[in-house]
Amino acid sequence: MHTGSCLCGGIRFEIHQEIGPVQICHCIQCRKAQGSAFVTNTPVQEENLRFISGKDLLGAFESSPGNQRCFCKNCGSPIYSKTEKLPGVVRIRVGTLDNDVNTEPHAHFYVAHKANWFQITDNLPQFLEGYVPQGTNL
Q1: Which residue, 134, 124, 130, is CA-closest to 112?
Q2: Judging by DSSP bridges, how do beta strands 22-25 and 105-109 pair with one another?
């Protein structure tokens, strides 16, 4: 089990599954939502996400048709996003997790849209746009 929370601690949650590979997204929407060069996500089955407190503090913004970004209405911390393209899956923001995870980044996505002031210096696979591995719903 993994635990996580927002910056103010109003939202607290548990994840009852292993944390999968970290996905690094460089799309413009993720950059704007994070205020950073990229976002780090990990896919989680929605049924394995349990809110301990603060579910009423969750706000949502539809950043594009079928895509929601969920955040704390109190402190603004992004918690997860979800898309109609992957029903039953949420993409937890890895930075909200309280404990260490036993996984590593998997790949960079949407690098065609990355910030020009940020250089990718690792050897992870890079995809110009999005990528969903074949045979998985994550």
Answers
A1: 130
A2: parallel
Domain boundaries, the chain: 2-113
Check: CB of residue 126 under 8 Å from CB of residue 120: yes
Whole-structure pTM value: 0.89
Mapping DSSP to helix (H, G, I), strand (E, B) and coil, where does residue 33 land? helix
Neighbours of 136 (CB within 10 A): 10
Domain 2-113: CATH class, spelled out? mainly beta
Q: How far apart are CA 22 and CA 16, in angstroms?
A: 17
Residue 61 one-letter amino acid: F
- Count other Cβ atoms within 10 Å, centred on residue 122: 9
| Radius of gyration over every alpha carbon of the chain, rounded to an integer in angstroms | 14
73 with 21: CB under 8 angstroms? no
| Average pLDDT of adjacent 10-residue blocks, the chain of 138 residues | 97 96 94 95 96 98 95 97 95 96 93 96 94 54
